User: What shape does this take?
Amino acid sequence: MRWIERPPGDQHLTDQLHHSLNHNPNKSVAYWVSQLLTSRHVVTYDQAKAFFVPRLEDLHDPFLMQDMDKAVLRIERALQQGESILVYGDYDVDGTTAVALMYQYLSGLGGSCAFYIPDRYTEGYGLSKQGIRFADDNGFTLLIALDCGVKAFDSIALSNELGIDVIVCDHHMPDSQLPNAFAVLDPMRTDCNYPFKGLCGCGVGFKLIQALEQKAGRGVEHIVQYLDLVAVAIGADVVSVADENRILAYHGVEQIKQKPRPGIKALLKGKTMRDAHLSDFNFSIAPKINAAGRIKHGEYAVALLTTTEYEKARELAQEIEVFNTERRSTEQQVTEEALILAEAEADCATTVVRASHWHKGVIGIVASRLQATYYRPTLVFTQSGTDWAASARSVKGYDVHAAIEACQQHLIQFGGHAYAAGITLSDEQYEPFKAAFEAHVRQTLKPDLQQPSITYDIEIGIEMLDLKMFRLLQRFQPFGPDNAEPVFLLRGVRLGAIQCVGAEGRHLRGKLHHLPFIAFNMGQQLDLAKDSMVDILATLGMNHFNDRASLQLQLKDIKPSNF
Assistant: This one.
């Protein structure tokens, strides 16, 4: 594991910020906080205030997004004339939360609405022709596509032939040409001057309802109840938590803490989320929502997230729990088989494996598992009808979407992001694509990206890691891409009371001076940790056990010390 120090902010700006936040000129906890802020490009008192207290009024004007005015006028017309509106979305967390948000909002305005989630196995990803025909058969004249649609050229052409207007709300990278939809809302459009490009699909949907509220003369505070859905989507889709997403995620987490919707409350099994953070939802909520679309159907997730009755939510959550249990079992089996195949390609720059019987709903998770094991761009294929479909995952710093695009002559379709993508190809193109992808990655993947790395913020002494520091660090929440949880370097320390814990002794537990620590998946480093001085990278957290809370270090890596 490579250790990389985060580039520090300008020393003069750090000193200035420290002075404005704390007039004590001596180095203190406040000074370290100033360093953390400037390294995150927060360099003035006003910027720090906005960072620590994200305000809804600082959200960008939604009408800065290309086509927003057209989309708002079309929805207003549909509502006024009583048209039937179909809310269509992808089957993952981002898509189902976006559908729940839009469906509830438009229904609350009196709209004649229904929602549609495509079947992962019979329709596949995106805006399907089957979905368009469903809209036509049932008299829908307006379709709002969420978290998909920016590459749905054929389906949107069909919708135009049938007289159905389509508003696309997407955040994926578009092609050089856009589909001929009524409106295309996507901050990634090259002709879109929206100031923040990092929205998730649910976030784009929220900007649309924000625009509708703004046009009606109402403020964003009238739709704050939908931010719980946006926060869950931001966390699950692993998008930036800087800029506008920081505001949306911050207030969404507060919404879940203070007034969770019945569906989310049921997924949490009534547990209090008083001390919850954005990353917690990636373990407690997101996998269960995803399991519905992976194992059964995404409509279960939307039904759960839109019900207003807790008993109904509890019943749906129990069904989804069953899907999630099946998902975990299937994922484990497919991962074991995929690892065997990947082992045969140990000398490759990529991992590309396939089996016709693998469950399509888990290949994305399996790709992540293989990427973590071999640390190289990874594609896991399974059969989809007569073709093959794959989920792709990348390593830190490498754009797998661009690599796939370079081999697109072998593909039927593809789409996604720099770190995660999906593709479809014919059986005869599998080997040519595999060879082309391997050659492209081997040529373009830089050597320093071929091993995992961890970025740390500052070197610090153990005496600085106390309750005061912890409380200040909590104000940096929510953590995620572009605002990682601060990681500290401690040199020349001796770990005490060390023991292996967990299944097969997989983890380490012990003490560093006055602080207990946990080191997940580091059981194999027991001898190093107990017999010598070490350098460690760690975060400072709180351990909750038996209704008691205590400070705890979480070790990220251990190396022999040169001290």
Remarks:
- DSSP finds 20 helices and 19 strands in the chain.
- The chain has a mean pLDDT of 92.
- Residues 166 and 182 are 5 Å apart (CA to CA).
